[in-house]
Design goal:
This protein is mainly α. It folds into two domains: 88 residues, no CATH class; 56 residues, no CATH class. Helix content is 24%, strand content 4%. The chain is built from four helices and two strands, in the order ααααββ. It has a two-stranded antiparallel sheet with strand order 1-2. The radius of gyration is 18 Å and the shape is globular.
């Protein structure tokens, strides 16, 4: 069973050869500890060695004040580079008291097309293990679920 088959079988609650693994995106000490444990040199190698079934990669992002897509927003409204390991939506800043979309009407949303290199995104997607690759349309990676969430039902 490959990663894609294992993932879809897991979502469909069908038998699998082993539990599907998704390590998400560890940062800081967690990433360093996992790399040390698996004797991996970087995030890509760690995912391959650990058998991550949902291969993820960081989108290359650099806006001048944020060098990680997870910190793309000028959270504190002061142009500082937000540490993606310690960011939260409840920290002091633009999102802290927002409850409705209209509460953020003042916010200057970043234009990701200015800060993301599509060719680097494609290169990183192509580095994924073949069995864990997502489908593609026009060269851009897309992820598909086997059925919409509204169609999911819990088995009794």
């Amino acid at each position: 069973m490959n990663s894609r088959e294992r993932f879809y079988a897991t979502v469909a609650r069908q038998p699998v050869d082993r539990p599907a693994v998704w390590m998400s995106a560890p940062v800081g000490a967690e990433l360093a500890n996992m790399c040390r444990y698996y004797q991996a040199n970087d995030w890509h190698e760690l995912q391959v060695k650990a058998g991550d079934d949902v291969y993820a990669f960081d989108i290359p992002y650099d806006s001048g004040y944020a060098t990680h897509i997870a910190a793309a927003f000028d959270w504190y409204q002061n142009g500082s580079n937000v540490d993606p390991e310690h960011r939260t939506l409840t920290a002091d800043g633009c999102f802290k008291n927002a409850e409705e979309p209209g509460d953020l009407a003042f916010f200057r949303w970043p234009d990701p097309t200015k800060y993301i290199d599509p060719s680097e995104c494609r290169r990183r997607a192509a580095a994924a293990p073949r069995t864990a690759r997502c489908s593609r349309r026009s060269g851009a990676p897309t992820f598909r679920m086997p059925a919409p969430a509204s169609a999911w039902r819990q088995r009794s």
